[in-house]
Amino acid sequence: MKFPDEEQFGKAADAAVRTFSLKNNGWNAVLASILRIKGARVNRTEFLRQVFEQLPAGRTWMSAETMQELAAKRIRRHTIETSAASAAAGLPGGFALLATVPADVMQYLWHTVVLAQELCYLYGTADLFSEDGRLSDQGNGILTLAVCLMLGSRDTETENAFSALYRALKERALKNPSFLAVTARFWYPAAEKAAEWLGAKLAGTAARGGLSKFLPLIGAAVNGIASYATFSSAAVFLESSLRNAAKAAAEEQAHGGFSA
Question: Between these two residues, 205 and 216, which has the higher pLDDT value?
């Protein structure tokens, strides 16, 4: 995947600053801006084909062990790339900081959104985008909740809603309208709350600087090192949440839960 350049991140961030208030529906607009950056939308079919074509002969991709190995590879790749960009952002002449959403923060969020899609697809969710290319309500919800979890929220409601929405996005569950309706009443309020939390986090910290303010553990002098640890641990937590949700979905299926 070609790494998006500074100009793309800058334009996306600048557009976000001009067109919305971060304290209100800001996160949805930020997400829309991120998804307009090259490479931000993961094509589910192409991604899964490329990943599974690399499996050694005889390996069963549906096994829990294989899923974890594949997920770990994606996490390592994005961790290395975002850490390299963070290190560059901490140096003079690095990413230019914009008024409200600095380019290095947009870069960090870009990797978070892309990785969230990849992990969801690895663990069996249906396409997060509709046939006309629009992000579905469920897709918006699960990306919002995923980013919220990766940026430090450990609210039980958020974790439970993420798990429920994951189960709703399993392909078999999508054929059961009643299950979708029930889960929507549960996850939608949590996703709205998560979006508000993300908007407030962006408005309250990103306006005062880059990643060193957005992620307080990161200082300008050690951006790359701290970003590596921060992104890696956040990504591992998201993968663990997906793995647990997948296990819960399998148990539901086995005990006569939602059906195809």
Answer: 205
CA distance linking residue 62 with residue 59, whole number of Å: 9
Could you tell me how many residues make up the chain?
A: 260
CA-nearest of 102, 95, 94, 114 to 34 is 114
* SS3 of residue 129 by DSSP: strand
- Quickly list H helices, the chain: 6-19, 26-35, 44-53, 64-89, 103-122, 137-150, 156-169, 177-205, 211-214, 223-254
Q: What is the CA radius of gyration of the chain?
A: 18
Q: 168 φ, ψ to 5°?
A: -70, -30
Write the pLDDT tens digit of every residue in 23-52.
456 788 888 888 988 889 999 999 999 988
Q: Which of 31, 24, 5, 177 is nearest to 96 (CA)?
A: 5
Phi, psi of 127, deg, nearest 5: -60, 135
